[in-house]
Specification:
- The protein is of the alpha+beta class and 205 residues long.
- It has one domain.
- It has four helices and ten strands, in the order αβββββαββαββαβ.
């Protein structure tokens, strides 16, 4: 059984690798998914390659491809060719759209023992989708707001805190309740980031 220190160390590394791009830099990972299978659906307009609107040099791209079970394969390519692959699920809570992202594979430091990598657990990240077409608009948690809220209300949502690292351990049901309770009122989500289509998929609304 892993000790608390080992668990904390594993999550610090996994969270760092999972949040490998600028748009994900402020996210807080969750042990459990934010969706249930019944809430997932497939939106064809999401398929294709997207670029941050403000990035004129195409230094970063998000490529969504169709995957098994209404899921998407998301490949994030950063400047200098660094890549990360995620499994993404688009789902609806009430009338709001969200994306659940989880790393498909975490490539840890090559000089670490294999047993260390075996102990790593990738986390789920949540993005609110305010628009799919013609532009893709995504908003992630305002981590500063969430961190302050959990410090002031530690029982509001089950989590583990180790130094500056927070990992959500709440159930899917409790995660959804929390998101809906604070949606659009307290600043749970940051302002949306706008992405424009580079290739693939229809462009209509």
């Amino acid at each position: 059984m892993k000790t608390q220190d080992q668990f904390t160390a594993s999550w610090k590394i996994a969270a760092t690798l999972a949040i490998a791009v600028a748009l994900l830099s402020a996210c807080i990972p969750s042990v459990n998914p934010y969706y249930t299978d019944k809430q997932v659906f497939f939106e064809p307009r999401l398929v294709g390659e997207w670029l941050p609107q403000e990035d004129s040099k195409d230094a970063e791209s998000w490529k969504f491809e169709s995957a098994e079970g209404k899921a998407y394969k998301l490949t994030v390519t950063e400047e200098e060719g660094r890549q990360g692959e995620f499994t993404a699920h688009l789902f609806k809570l009430k009338q709001e759209l969200f994306l659940d992202l989880i790393p498909s594979e975490c490539k840890y430091a090559t000089n670490e023992a294999g047993l260390v990598a075996a102990a790593m657990i990738p986390g789920h990240l949540l993005a609110r989708v305010t628009q799919v077409a013609p532009e893709l608009k995504l908003a992630f948690f305002d981590w500063r707001w969430l961190e302050q809220h959990l410090k002031a209300n530690p029982k509001a949502l089950a989590h583990r805190a180790a130094g500056e690292t927070i990992v959500l351990t709440a159930s899917t049901r409790d995660l959804q309740r929390f998101v809906l309770k604070h949606l659009g009122e307290d600043g749970l989500f940051d302002s949306p980031s706008v992405m424009t289509r580079k290739t693939g998929g229809p462009t209509g609304p």
